[in-house]
Amino acid sequence: MSTSDRPRFAAIVNEYWPGSHADLLIGRMHEGYELLWTPAEPLSSLDALHVLDPGPTDVGGERALEWGVRQAAGVAEALSAGGTGVDVDGVVLIAERNPRSGRPEEIDGRGRPQDSRHELFLRVAQACEQSGRTVPVFLDKHVGNSWSEIKEVYDTARRLSIPLMAGSSLPVTVRCPPVEIPFGSRVKEVVVVATGSGEPPIFHPLELVQSMIERRAGFETGVASVRFVSGEQFWDAYTNGGVWSRDLADAAIDAVPHFAEGAREYYRRFPTEVVGGGAAVPPRGREEAVVVDYNDGTRVSVLLLTGFMLRRSVAVRLADAPEPVVTWTPTGAKLSDVPMVGAEVARPGQKKPPTWNFDHLAAFVDRFLFTGRSPFPIERTVLTSGILDAAISSRRLGGAAVETPHLDIAYRPAVTPGQLTRRVDQPVG
Length: 429
What we know:
Elements: E1 8-13, H1 21-31, E2 33-35, E3 38-40, E4 45-51, H2 60-67, E5 70-71, H3 75-79, E6 90-94, H4 117-131, E7 137-140, H5 147-160, E8 164-167, E9 187-194, H6 200-213, E10 223-230, H7 231-240, H8 246-254, E11 258-259, H9 263-269, E12 286-294, E13 299-305, E14 312-318, E15 325-329, E16 340-341, H10 357-371, H11 378-396, E17 402-403, H12 417-425
Parallel strand pairs: 1-4, 1-6, 4-5, 6-7, 7-8, 9-13
Antiparallel strand pairs: 2-3, 9-14, 10-12, 10-17, 11-16, 12-13, 14-15
Helix pairs in contact: 1-10, 4-5, 5-11, 6-11
Protein name: Gfo/Idh/MocA family oxidoreductase
């Protein structure tokens, strides 16, 4: 396909440093991506790049010069070379703000990092409305930093008929093994273990789990409440059960490398600075959990165990199934300073397993810009964004459960989301 036949898109990003989401996604969408060792040529073409807030390590300008791509001075100029209207055929918004850019994060009163995703989307939407031309928009990761922002983005996209896709790479990355929950299965409980600090270790596994359990009997009907568990409440639940099933947690942990002597012993040897639940600081990702109760009785618990284990793992209990469905993703932490046991412990000098997470995300976003149809329901990311927001509120309230009637979000999953993932995972020949 010649460049002139491809839909042209504008990339509007907050920052563009080596290894940033902008670098990992936009680079692949411009130069090509790999699907299970097989190079693929993009269906769309990068027309303009605007970096909203370049930091000391920013390379966005260098990339644009290298690629011969138009450097836009602002959002309006990214959407149209003349600065008015919408001349491009699609937009990719990446609002990442990361300390690795060379600048500290800005934290709000609840401990949430602040970024410009809501503002950027509304500026694009305004340009679409004024020009009378709507184009597909991809919004990286969550939809907004508060429920009011999430709802405004969603409602605006619906009002203007803007095709909207959002989310992270987790729903489309490699699963080991590549399991899928069969349509119509009765899901009773899910435990996922994850690593990292701040919001990503909460949002990423929520997206992974949601992409699996939305296929359950009755499909998605929404979330009733969310609560944040930490401190002695976490250890009481971890040791004695009652909040999440210990056997599911053990099954998830056993599927990935972890410290041999147990989580409690690990954190005794490597203690974490304890921060009160009401402190306006980000989640530390250690000895914490988020518990989500769905309207249909399904419970999902996200256990944050940074340092003790590596990667991300999910254990799903299905009704009438003797053993849980367990899978893990190669993404997440890869190295450890302590000896580990369990499945997939890396040997000395062993390279990390291929993940293709940004390759797969690039492929799905690329096809979205080409077709104008999101491969996944936007309601999935609206729901996970709302769960994350409620979890942060619960944490600020010292772990009190947050009722979520606004998350009565019902939707049907994509017709074959798992098959779509497997299709891009399968080798050619």
